[in-house]
Amino acid sequence: MESITKNRQSPATLRAMIARAYGPDQVPRGDDRDWVSELEHGWFNVAYRIRLRDGRQVVLKIAPPAHVEVMSHERGAMATELVALSLIRERSAVAVPAVDFADRSRELCDADYFFMPFVEADNFGILQEEGKLSAVERDAYNEALGAANRELNTIRGDWFGALAGPGEPTWRACFSRKLTEVLGDGVRRGVDLGYDVDVIGKATDAHLDALDEVTEPRFIEIDLWDSNTMVRDGKIVCIIDHERAFFGDPLMEAGFTGIDLPDGFGDPAAFIRGYGYGELTANERRRRWLYSIYLILVMIIETDYRGHTTTAQYDWARGQLRLLMAASDKVDR
């Protein structure tokens, strides 16, 4: 995927990064022309698959350029991912990449970067896009994804918000801030949402009281889609891309989005079955609607920040927002 946030580097800089991470003896030989390739499936960070001199395969992930403006929730995203990976490895059994080396000095390039081992597996999302899975296989993977997501949500925090802090004492305060920030991101760029910001604000304000029943901060990914899931031989072998994680309400997880928008995000039944979540209460439906509004606003506004060259995502997401706004007064039924 193409995005102006992808911070591509020259071969010379990549070699310098390898030397810093693994030592000069692991820098690929000068006559090796196939030592690096870009992993193109993704919208935000640039990622390279690299073969070290000893034959090991690793992935280098580089944060966006310092001069490129990102959305409020994306600031410091790579630092968030490093904290998230550490938390997951220490406090759950969910498989995530190990971090071989991380550099936040910005001496070799203008952004944070880190190396991790390459995971030899298939991307669940790509398998679905290419029609390589039967309905049974797809549902089995989604059930497993739901179970993995539930385990991640058992990680408790001491506040709501950023993993490394600072945070808010209540979920309502935290989510309200995030919603205000994303709307502000849109206003700053003059993004046409199809609705006045005040109209969206009035609709969401009517449901914020439903957030008060969430009292325990839990680790949530909110970006745990099938395309961030690596699978092999019928099993999930790794979960990738954790830069949006924070402490919040597990019901905000991506796998639940189909509850509100089944035509746009698919039937969530298998994910919910694997997660073990029961029928939603009236307040849970109101919370879920708020989280879908937030997600769709991000999807509309990020097209401007990432410099999309077509309006496909923008047009699609605006249509999803219309569906959500039309349901704003009946989401608890």
Automatic annotation (TrEMBL):
Per the record, the domain of life is: Bacteria
Domain Aminoglycoside phosphotransferase, chain residue ranges per copy: 36-289
Which InterPro entries does the entry mention?
A: AGP_Transferase (IPR051678), Aminoglycoside_PTrfase (IPR002575), Kinase-like_dom_sf (IPR011009)
- What name goes with this protein? Aminoglycoside phosphotransferase
Q: Which organism is it from?
A: Polymorphospora rubra
